[in-house]
């Protein structure tokens, strides 16, 4: 089986549209990790991602009749741009079906590369169903984004380039995984020639479909996926890609949103380019691996798979970077409401830099502080700080890993509503499209009062919402049923410590 892929990779025609990207040394990251870190710069492709390779290689294998019929795909991301450009170079009609809420910048990018954009449906699944319907009705050839042998072989040319560009021993190669085409193509080539090189797949914790499949021994479909790293936000690994990954990938590492944000900064520091979250996931996985294995002096390669970043998302990335590096702690502290206690708290912090500070009078006995504190490398000094505060009889809660505190509470510190009764708190993910909020409000009607509502746009397809609802005890089952029928992912946060301290 590997022989057929090696032949396809060697015979690939990707360079009629793609370029051979450099393998750059990341000097700052190398110094920090005490290993030689090389970045495979697929963000420098003409469409700013590796997808042009697989898309073009697939089109190059079509018959004249198939090309005359035209090709189609459903995508709101890098595959859309890759297929549009590949088809343009080859003179083939390309129809790209995109969900209606797709950001205009992505729609315009596909049009600029010669793709015929059709906006259909509110979700990717609706767009995909329409694209497949057009295959049946109009005879288009459907081009899969990852689960096709020729697409996999096109991505595998990256492995071929790596071995040509780096002649010395390689310890590990870190590859971001969504549907698995990139990892499968690189892994099969690398392992065929150098089986001792470790091939490590890296997934977002919010969409770890390969890890789930590896653990189960078969492909599984995740019930839901987070879309921050949208380039690898896939619910199920492909059939062909899973067959290859379970044979040739040594392990799967999952990384958090904060760790990805920190890796984006790492790549920017060394290259002055900004990778998309999926593009930086490999670096986040590499850092995690080095810390776990405590290796030094090795050559490590990370695939920077793309740079199609929404500009509006940069604010969110910057906010989460220090938490991802563990160089910031978010703390909630109760201060006794007496003269000098605030000064004593500040003295206890010492010379540590304060990144954020919110102080709120609670009652005649207590005040609440929500603070961001700078820490040393890898969180050095946090435990000492917590101990010092507790020795001074300050009640302190570490909120550094509390998702609700990071997403919402830090922007809402304004006090508690003492007159609100029977309030319950929920986090929702809404689709970022017109009518989503109205649908939410209509679902609950006049049965439950909205006592709190917080929303921040993160430049993604899903909006993060924090909602307080006044629900009488006898209405709890009715409220849960209404939420389930709504169909939006949600989590109850009524017992969250940050909520109890600052908002309830």
Report the total helices: 20
Overall geometric form: globular
Q: Give the CATH architecture of the largest domain.
A: 3-Layer(aba) Sandwich
Tell me the domain tally: 4
Remind me, CATH topology of the largest domain?
Rossmann fold
Mean of pLDDT: 88
Please state the CA-atom Rg, rounded to the nearest Å. 25 Å
Got a strand count? 18
Structure description:
With 504 residues, this protein is α/β, with parallel strands linked by helices. It folds into four domains: 2-49 and 149-318, Rossmann fold; 51-142, Rossmann fold, CATH 3.40.50; 326-401, ACT domain (Alpha-Beta Plaits, 2-Layer Sandwich), CATH 3.30.70.260; 418-502, 3-Layer(aba) Sandwich (Biosynthetic Threonine Deaminase, domain 3). 42% of the residues lie in helices and 21% in strands. It has 20 helices and 18 strands. The protein has helices at residues 2-10, 27-33, 51-60, 64-69, 78-90, 104-112, 124-138, 149-165, 181-193, 209-216, 239-248, 257-271, 277-293, 314-324, 341-349, 382-391, 403-407, 436-444, 476-486, 497-502; strands at 23-25, 36-41, 71-74, 94-98, 116-119, 141-142, 172-176, 198-204, 251-255, 299-304, 328-336, 354-361, 366-374, 395-398, 423-431, 449-456, 462-470, 490-492. The chain has a six-stranded mixed β-sheet, with helices on both faces. A four-stranded parallel β-sheet has the order 5-4-3-6, with helices on both faces. It has a four-stranded antiparallel β-sheet with strand order 12-13-11-14. A hairpin with a 5-residue loop joins strand 16 (449-456) and strand 17.
């Amino acid at each position: 089986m590997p022989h057929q892929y090696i032949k396809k990779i060697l015979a690939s025609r990707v360079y009629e549209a793609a370029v051979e990207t450099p393998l750059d040394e990341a000097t700052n990251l190398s110094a920090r990790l005490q290993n030689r870190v090389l970045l495979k710069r697929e963000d420098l492709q003409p469409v700013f991602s590796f997808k042009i390779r697989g898309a073009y290689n697939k089109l190059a294998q079509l018959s004249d009749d198939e090309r005359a019929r035209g090709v189609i795909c459903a995508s709101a991301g890098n595959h859309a741009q890759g297929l549009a450009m590949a088809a343009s170079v080859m003179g083939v009609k390309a129809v790209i079906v995109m969900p209606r809420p797709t950001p205009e910048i992505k729609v315009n990018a596909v049009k600029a590369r010669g793709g015929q954009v059709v906006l259909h449906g509110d979700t990717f699944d609706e767009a995909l169903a329409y694209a497949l319907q057009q295959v049946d009705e109009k005879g288009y050839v459907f081009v899969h984004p990852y689960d096709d042998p020729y697409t996999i072989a096109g991505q595998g040319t990256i492995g071929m380039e790596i071995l040509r560009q780096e002649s010395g021993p390689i310890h590990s190669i870190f590859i971001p995984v969504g549907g698995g085409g990139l990892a499968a193509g690189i892994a099969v080539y690398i392992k065929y020639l150098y089986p001792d090189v470790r091939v490590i797949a890296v997934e977002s914790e919010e969409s770890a479909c390969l890890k789930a499949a590896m653990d189960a021994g078969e492909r599984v479909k995740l019930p839901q996926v987070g879309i921050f790293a949208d380039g690898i936000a896939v619910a199920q690994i492909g059939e062909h890609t899973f067959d290859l990954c379970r044979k040739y990938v040594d392990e799967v590492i999952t990384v958090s949103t904060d760790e990805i944000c920190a890796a984006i900064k790492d790549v920017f520091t060394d290259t002055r380019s900004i990778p998309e979250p999926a593009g930086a996931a490999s670096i986040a996985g590499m850092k995690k691996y080095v810390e776990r294995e405590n290796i030094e002096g090795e050559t490590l390669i990370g695939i920077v798979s793309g740079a199609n970043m929404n500009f509006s998302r940069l604010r969110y990335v910057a906010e989460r970077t220090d938490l991802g590096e563990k160089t910031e702690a978010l703390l909630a502290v109760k201060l006794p409401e007496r003269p000098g206690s605030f000064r004593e708290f500040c003295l206890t912090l010492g010379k540590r830099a304060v990144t954020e500070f919110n102080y709120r009078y609670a009652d005649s006995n207590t005040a609440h502080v929500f603070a961001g504190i700078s820490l040393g490398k890898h969180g050095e000094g946090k435990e000492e700080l917590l101990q010092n505060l507790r020795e001074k009889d300050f009640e302190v809660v570490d909120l550094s890993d509390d998702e609700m505190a990071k997403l919402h509470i830090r922007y809402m510190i304004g006090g508690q509503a003492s007159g609100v009764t029977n309030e319950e708190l929920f986090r929702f993910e809404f689709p970022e499209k017109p009518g989503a909020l109205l649908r939410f409000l209509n679902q609950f009607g006049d049965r439950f009062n909205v006592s709190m509502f917080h929303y921040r746009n993160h430049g993604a397809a899903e909006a993060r919402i924090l909602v307080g609802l006044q629900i009488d005890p006898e209405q709890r089952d009715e409220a849960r049923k209404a939420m389930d029928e709504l169909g939006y992912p949600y989590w109850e946060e009524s017992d969250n410590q940050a909520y109890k301290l600052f908002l309830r």
